[in-house]
Amino acid sequence: MEPMEDKANGQNRRKSERKDVAFTLSYCVDRPYTLRISLGVADDINALMLNLSDLGMAIVTTLDLLVGTRLDIRFNLMNLNLFGEKRTRQMRVTAEVVSKVALSKGNYRIGLRFDKITEEDKMAISDFIKHSKFNT
To answer: Most C-beta atoms within 10 A of its C-beta, which of 22, 72, 83, 129?
Structure first.
């Protein structure tokens, strides 16, 4: 995937390369807690991850999440270039909603920036993206 460019001045706005993916994940609203209560949903909400980088991701969800909302996210990263126990890594990160676009049929494309991610998880994502470039 090409880095996102700022149309106003042609500069790259992305600080990290992203990879288009189709992973399922689950999340819950961490903050604001009042939003979590007003949504009236169970703690775990399923969504589809559209792309991933070591700095964030984009997801599709049915909830209209406000910019600034913090999510607790869990997903499995499967790297087919690795073997054994290293092939699948369970990840838990927290992220902030930084963008939202309404899609059809009551879905939203949500842009997320990680604010809590371990260095090991960052490295696993970077390796996944790097190896995926050679296999596409």
So the answer is: 129
Please report whether residue 35 resides in a domain.
yes
Q: Tens-of-pLDDT digits for all 136 residues of the chain? A: 334 444 444 334 556 788 999 999 999 998 877 776 677 766 689 999 999 999 999 999 999 999 999 999 999 998 877 777 878 899 999 999 999 999 999 999 999 999 999 999 999 999 899 877 655 4
Question: What CATH number did the domain enclosing 117 receive?
Answer: 2.40.10.220
The total number of structural domains that make up the chain: 1
Residue 62 lies in domain? 19-134
Q: With respect to residue 14, please indicate whether it lies within any of the assigned structural domains.
A: no
